[in-house]
Amino acid sequence: MGTPRVVMLAGPGDVTPMLYHELSARLGPVPVIMERPMSRADFLRRRARRLGWLQVGHQSLFQTTVAPVLRRRGRRRIDELLRTHELRGDPIPEAQIIAVPSVNSDEARDALRALEPEVVVISATRIVSKATLRCVEAPFINLHTGITPYYRGVHGGYWALHQGEPERFGVTVHLVDAGIDTGAILAQRVIEPSVEDNFATYPYLQFAHGVPMVGAAVEGLLTGEQPRWREPAVRGGLWSHPTVLSYLRGRRRGVR
Predict the structure, then answer these.
(1) Is residue 184 part of a domain?
(2) What is the model's pTM?
(3) Which domain range does residue 38 map to?
(4) Residue 42 lies in a domain
(5) 3-class SS of residue 32
(6) In this structure, are residues 217 and 185 in contact, taking their beta carbons and an 8 Å threshold?
(7) Count of domains for the chain
């Protein structure tokens, strides 16, 4: 077996097996360098260093009270999206997984160097360090659930609706650089959510459109046919998780 042309650098997350099966259907089995999930305590500490503990506390309250209710209410819609768009969530074969403590560990970089990929697809990881991005001569690409550069960070589609900009609800496939969702845009699509969608279903609607876009972008990079878009001359905003109060403010305006 020859050197794989594509490698995934991933963490546990619903979109990771979707991307694996999309890429494998197009290119054959793809190796997956899989990091351990960050502990919730470490995750909260890192977020608090940027936002402060008060804001993180309010976000955590939303995630533990409101978000589970929205997910239960959206379960049928999520199942419909997975079925209609043939998104596969079955586990990645163990033989394809290379377990590492972190995508920024020596073990992850050693695995990348050994595999010598032509393209690296990132999925559901922590922020990838410069050292990891520079360890191989391959582009790193990412599927972002938002329209960059306007809605960087998390929940980009939701925040576009919350800010009264439904024309910026969509997905972006972009190159990964040292910033957060700041790399050159490879593909982008605006999506119109339905009345059945809410905060919990938005990501799956975006995955439904974005996962095939990643597959097409990877094939384009491998063949040299993938154009790079010029980014707008704005930096946009970096968005985080909503709080209960911010969600209710949006809900009063019809943003679910």
Answers:
(1) yes
(2) 0.94
(3) 6-251
(4) yes
(5) strand
(6) no
(7) 1
